[in-house]
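Input C-alpha cells:
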C-alpha cells in the first residue's frame, strides 16, 4: 500500500492566501480583477511585451520554383 506524503510550503500557502484575499476584494469578478491588473500595469511604467499580435515570427513558406532549364 502506498503512502501519500503531505508537503506544506509556507511560501506557497502565503501566496494562496494573498491571491484569495485579492480575488475576494473584487467579489471574484474576473473582469474587475483584469481591469485592476491592467491599471497596475499601466501605472508601473515598466515596458511590457505585447504577445497578442497575430503576426507570426516564422517566415512564410515560399512556393517551390520550377526549373526552367
Amino acid at each position: 500500500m502506498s503512502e501519500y506524503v503531505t508537503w506544506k510550503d509556507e511560501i506557497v500557502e502565503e501566496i494562496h492566501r494573498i491571491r484569495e484575499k485579492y480575488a475576494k476584494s473584487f467579489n471574484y469578478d474576473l473582469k474587475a480583477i483584469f481591469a485592476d491588473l491592467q491599471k497596475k500595469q499601466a501605472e508601473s511604467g515598466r515596458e511590457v511585451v505585447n504577445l497578442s499580435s497575430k503576426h507570426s515570427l516564422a517566415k512564410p513558406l515560399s512556393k517551390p520554383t520550377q526549373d526552367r532549364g
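The chain is about 45% helix and 0% strand. The radius of gyration is 24 Å.
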